[in-house]
Amino acid sequence: MPITPEQAAEIDAQRAQPQPTLRATAPGIEAHLYTALPVLDHGFVRVIDYMGDDSAIVQAARVSYGAGTKHVSNDEGLIRYLMRHWHSTPFEMCEIKLHVKLPIFVARQWIRHRTANVNEYSARYSIMDREFYIPAPEQLAAQSSVNNQGRGAVLEGAEAARVLEILKTDAGRSYDHYEEMLDQDGKQGLARELARMNLPTNIYTQWYWKTDLHNLFHFLRLRADPHAQYEIRVYAEEIAKVVADWVPAAYAAFADYRMGGASVSATGLDCLRRMLKGEAVTQETSGMSKGEWREFLAMIEG
Amino acid sequence: MPITPEQAAEIDAQRAQPQPTLRATAPGIEAHLYTALPVLDHGFVRVIDYMGDDSAIVQAARVSYGAGTKHVSNDEGLIRYLMRHWHSTPFEMCEIKLHVKLPIFVARQWIRHRTANVNEYSARYSIMDREFYIPAPEQLAAQSSVNNQGRGAVLEGAEAARVLEILKTDAGRSYDHYEEMLDQDGKQGLARELARMNLPTNIYTQWYWKTDLHNLFHFLRLRADPHAQYEIRVYAEEIAKVVADWVPAAYAAFADYRMGGASVSATGLDCLRRMLKGEAVTQETSGMSKGEWREFLAMIEG
Amino acid sequence: MPITPEQAAEIDAQRAQPQPTLRATAPGIEAHLYTALPVLDHGFVRVIDYMGDDSAIVQAARVSYGAGTKHVSNDEGLIRYLMRHWHSTPFEMCEIKLHVKLPIFVARQWIRHRTANVNEYSARYSIMDREFYIPAPEQLAAQSSVNNQGRGAVLEGAEAARVLEILKTDAGRSYDHYEEMLDQDGKQGLARELARMNLPTNIYTQWYWKTDLHNLFHFLRLRADPHAQYEIRVYAEEIAKVVADWVPAAYAAFADYRMGGASVSATGLDCLRRMLKGEAVTQETSGMSKGEWREFLAMIEG
Amino acid sequence: MPITPEQAAEIDAQRAQPQPTLRATAPGIEAHLYTALPVLDHGFVRVIDYMGDDSAIVQAARVSYGAGTKHVSNDEGLIRYLMRHWHSTPFEMCEIKLHVKLPIFVARQWIRHRTANVNEYSARYSIMDREFYIPAPEQLAAQSSVNNQGRGAVLEGAEAARVLEILKTDAGRSYDHYEEMLDQDGKQGLARELARMNLPTNIYTQWYWKTDLHNLFHFLRLRADPHAQYEIRVYAEEIAKVVADWVPAAYAAFADYRMGGASVSATGLDCLRRMLKGEAVTQETSGMSKGEWREFLAMIEG
After folding, report:
1. What are the strands, taking DSSP E only, across chain B?
2. CB C177 to CB B191 under 8 A?
3. Taking residues C44-60, what's their average pLDDT?
4. C193: which chain D residues are within 8 Å (Cβ-Cβ)?
5. How far, in Å, CA of C53 to CA of C31, rounded?
6. What whole-number distance in Å separates Cα of residue D117 and Cα of residue C242?
7. What is the pLDDT of residues D168-199, one digit of tens each?
8. What are phi and psi for residue D168, nearest 5 degrees?
9. Which reactions are catalysed by this chain (chains A, B, C, D) (predicted)?
10. Of B44, B135, D16, D228, which has the fewest beta carbons less than 10 angstroms from its beta carbon?
11. Nearest chain D CA: its distance from C298 CA (Å)
12. Catalytic positions of A, please?
């Protein structure tokens, strides 16, 4: 279970006291505030705070464009225009703060997104909780034989059982030894900043993470993508739903132009134009490598 | 006058409709929201939005420090501890968005603070307003004879009058010519993106500017400093008052440890220690250059 | 003329003394070092330093991929793969430092690229030179009647002459008055930090600008684009040639996947797929707005 | 041993071929290039590339200060002036690229420095090596009883032996199980991106890390500090030696103004001034908390 009854009570308390504010408010995300949206076996995403809404994007863009928006008849149209033409700064005018509980190996991928603010639980200062990510059976996938960083078929039977046994047993033993080294009951044990090195990277950590909407979209594009590792993708997918409730017009534009869209190279454009004129382009006549041609076909065939 | 009656009415409308929210609210800054705080002759600072309060800093820090805050008895103490030990990430958990109207030469200094989000009024897209910064007589200072980037005594009499005449006349003529080149009434005039190059850098522009509290403190430390140019300092001072109302504990810690504090070099520490033991240290025995010694004396003499 | 004979002599001196180094060197860019590549009437771009070459990108990527590069048979292929799949970090491992002389209104667009290091000539500390950008006659374009931030036909005859006269006369007069206010010969004149506000934004400034290859590509994609203002585009085009000489494989991949490529939305992909199957898609059946459909047609028709 | 004979041979090859360059070269760091400077039991720091030297800092600053450096008689003096007055941009004009091998728990602290470029060895794509950090006996410290994130006395006898046994045995077993789950010899084993979660955070990873001198100084100030965890401090100390050889004047200024210096609060300055006038200030009359007073005394007593 991701949160304790005490924590659930704290969340209820946070949700019980609406305050009046003159700021822009977005009802769709107010409904999510503080609630723990479960991810994986013990993880969660909680919205702690937000700044701005769809109108805040338009409002910021209109400073940069003055009174000249007469040709874009409404906010939604302007937001689509901004997204299509890579005018990213108005999207930076919205901000979100999340509390996330996640395995360390996921946190290590996540932190590579540098344009964000982070406060992580400190294992130098505090003792880690005994909570480890153990994949659900349907996620116990074999190494892909075609993609060096992907997964293949799901493991079954004895092999799957053996993997689960290893993960559970090693996690438990590592934690027992962590506690033994800390040894707080009698004399002073090993320093916490040293003892923690014995813990595997499927142990859960947590952090506060704050970023703007433009950088969040970039995060979602990379991490909610089918090529992202499943264990971070499920966080991105949960966040994507929150964003759709928070800034529906911006999210719809993002879904159309980024998530559901594609990039075509100059070579690919040339092939497309030839194909639209009726030419039967093949990999050999495309100017692309085999891998690139395969990806191109996947794009145009959907 | 920095804003028109129409704009004042829009601001009143924005202030008229409080909404309920579950987010952290800071009453001290709610009172400032949307209001135009006047700066210089036509400029202003308006708070458009904010995220977080003093408690949000503590809350983020406590994720990074877990349950281990028992030795810091209260929020204010923890905030002071964080500021003193350069733990900057919890301060990044608060965010503010401002609408600022400012002369271009001030905007050029301001934009050097890179960790911020900006949407500026576009002179490619729109026509600039006829508003120029003309210094008040008491700001018409001569070049400093001791500081290559500072001001000396205030100009007086005919010299002051001549400077004001130049600034006003050149600004007016440049703008007349700008309008003439744009020539919108009859045929198509010169492109706006070209015509604007004729305008001097004391013309007013405006932007939305959003940053986090840590980076805002850095901005204030450099720009509310007596060595900063007066024309940006007055903006920083106005913002500093807003911040003091928004996050009083964080601002008090900042005032003590940063704005009112000082950095001492290893050489300076050595001198201090010798002086506290009764030694009469001089520039010659200090190990410092003359300039550095002068700054050191200014620091310890207050 | 962008540089003085004294400056030309300094550049010759810098180019006269090759030193041995163990670092990666890129002969194609060594040929450009220090030389002033002229841009506009008085501007230039000078390469001051660089770090890395095409191999440095591969080398960094191979740390992240260990010994597993067996499926990408050569450096060029790996570089294309990285570019195609938005693996941007290896491109960040190359760095370039430029000395640029440019009009202030161009500098104001340029500085919006925040992930870069900048040292600009200080008009608080020093006196600006009397050098202004005056457009060549073929650049004196009218405001576009279809694009709010674009140019239309070139001005001609008396109108063009009048614009040139205004730009030259106002620049000259502003500078005369700038000098008069500074008034250095006799008594102390107006502070430099104040006097500079009288200067128009077509005066030239200069700076050192340093960025990594990934961010430089982003700069080039936006600023070497036909929609960028001509006066910044010519700088981007000059830099693009330097980059092509510096990292030819990375530049070729960038030209194919970014500069010459395009983004297609989910809606656009759907239209493409229908068209490739023989359907006659129109704006009405496309799901796109008129503006978007026009851009879509321009893309597929080339 | 941090590197294999094959790797040593590759390094020798890299060092064998000096090339002529027109760029600024710094002989002091050329001597370090590519060489693996050992850190901890299996880690290292290798300088892969650098840009700039002390003169490059001055050169960049002189663009921002034009011809106006007559009052600072030499490069060293100007560098000290820039450091003392927090003019950080000229230091950003130097850049360094390192190859670092380090335990994951150290990498997790290191990556919090966001203004840097990183390429890390991928455990999704490749198989991790069997190399773990096992502390030397003199580093096996107990938890500090006064500092929640510090170390106390060194463990001894049976307790130390037990800790070492746990760390070694758990690391070995985790790695055995990692290999067993990957099971490459026969059929397809567990995906690498999943199997790696069983590995503890004292396993070694490696990355290319590139940053500018200003941000590197910030890293060194925090990580070469006595309060930093020993296991990252030793990396910082090794890098500090390299920097001292690379940019001796900048490093000396950094050592004086940052590493060896201190920050004094407004309250602390007031106490200092009173003490220098002969007053016997105590904690009670200082206006400081007990903890702050203790830190203040430590500073002035050295």
Report:
1. 19-21, 36-39, 43-51, 95-103, 117-120, 141-143, 151-154, 204-212, 262-264
2. no
3. 95
4. none
5. 14
6. 23
7. 999 999 999 999 999 866 677 999 999 999 99
8. -70, -45
9. dUMP + (6R)-5,10-methylene-5,6,7,8-tetrahydrofolate + NADPH + H(+) = dTMP + (6S)-5,6,7,8-tetrahydrofolate + NADP(+)
10. D16
11. 37
12. 223
